[in-house]
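Table S5 (text form). Sequence records supplied for joint modeling of the two-component complex.
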Amino acid sequence: MQPVATTFFFYMLSGLAILGGVLVITRKNAVHSALALILSLLALAGLYLMLYAPFVAGVQIILYAGGIMVLFLFVIMLVNLERSQKEEQFNQQWIAGLLAAAALGALFIAIYVKGQKLFPQRILQMPEESNTQQVAVLLYGNYMFSFEIASLLLLVAIIGAVVMAKKRI
Amino acid sequence: MLASMFDGIKAYLFSGKSTPGQADSIPASLFWALVYILLIFLGLSIAVIAMNWLERKILAHMQVRLGPMRVGPHGLLQPIADALKLLIKEDITPAAADKWVFWLAPLMVVITAFTVFIVVPFGPAHAVTDMNIGILFMLGVSSLSVLGIVMAGWASNSHYPLMGALRSSAQMVSYEIAMGLAVVSAVLMTSLNDKGTGTLSMIGIVQAQAAQHVWFVFKFFPLGLIAFFIFAVAMVAETNRAPFDLPEAESELTAGFHTEYSGFRWSLFFLAEYSAMIAVSSIAVTLWLGGWLRPFTDWLSGDTWDMVFALIPGLSLLFLAGMCFYSTTRMPKHPSFRIQTAGLAGFGVVLAAAGVLLFVPPVRAWVQDIFWFSAKVAVFMYLYIWYRGTFPRYRFDQLMKVGWKILLPIGIGVLVLTAIAGVFF
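The corresponding structure-token record, covering 594 residues in total, follows.
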């Protein structure tokens, strides 16, 4: 079946992602921020689906929205939110923030203006039906070594966390 | 324009080869997807109502009680009375609760519990759509329901719900890993074909079992069986049911994460719990028990046996109808029970009519896959009730120990052995 109303879904999902992102930094309640972040992550999963990358979308939902954000909420729920809600923002780095935002904005504008020449228009030749298989071939075939290095890195992080948390092993 | 749309819609009905999501024309796809979604929603609601009644009845009989007997014959109308009671109960939001999150939590739980049914394959063409990442989608979306539970527990701003939510999130995150490993070892088995590539699509997994002439429980005996066992344990923990129902342990936490919910919103949690049970059972059925395939496709093959198995759906409904008629003779003879007896007989007539309808050849062919799938899921539903009636509840440290120190290592071992067996046999 051909894709339907692609423009509409693109703008809806992007809008949701941006809305979620804005809510993350404007809400004072940390739990509300985390929930807004989940909205943003789910909208991104939808965008991956639109890019014919169903596997990435599924992994995005399982890992980020389902796994990592649950742990986030888990920790935030145990923090005393009453105090942090009443406090004024004490971050005094608004000049640096403004500069960073301006630089990022300039980058976006530059891409919008010059993008047509920099990135050639081409449709990715990866059939949706075998997307998962293609990803697997790349990960376990061509990029086997870097993939295993990344998994080793995660293992080191896990062992490090256990060593730091436990006094006697 | 309209005529061509109608033709497309009609053409799909008689092609019967693909799911609505894969239909040729867009109107047909939209129309039939909507029809399937409504049918699944209706079927699920009826299944939850039936489960509510069956659970109370079966538990009661296990404990040598009668269970609901007052509302309707043998309490058959009890679930409807309960639903009405829940709808007209006062809907309370605690004063100290976080209103938005409190409102959002039951919605989140219900939406995730129902969304997974998009990819559940009731038959080769009986699913809303067939996704390339079917099983991944099911696991991912059902893992989102933890968020709803955590939100409910936190937003209630009360001690018991918070404890329940913490327990539930810890439990679900831990058991998801064992569950995932068991699922991966089943997905590995789908890759044993000429091409050497497996599939994550729910329909593809069942077709792989049909092509290999074996249900994955019996594949590489006992590896498939062990993986299935791990999944069967983890799925009970995932759905927060006894003996892993610590998040809602009545004796410790009143009702766990939904203590502060009442009325309609509480019933949403109830609905979500039961449809999540049906969802994980259908994952187990799809991955290990051959999905919609009828039993003994090889041993009892041939046209005669096909015919015999095709008659079973109708016969089983006729059997239920017969039970109803038999029960009418055992109803009390007092005049005040006359309406109940008539009602039971009427229910029997409805069941018998449905059973006879299932003997009509086109309907028979149409319904057969759905019947076998539902029958296998029903076995799991009975197991859930049986567990609840017989197993004592685990302590929290025991629960974590079972998840991390027993199921997870066995899961990894089975995965490695399955991969080795797949390479050498």
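Note: The mean pLDDT of chain B is 84.
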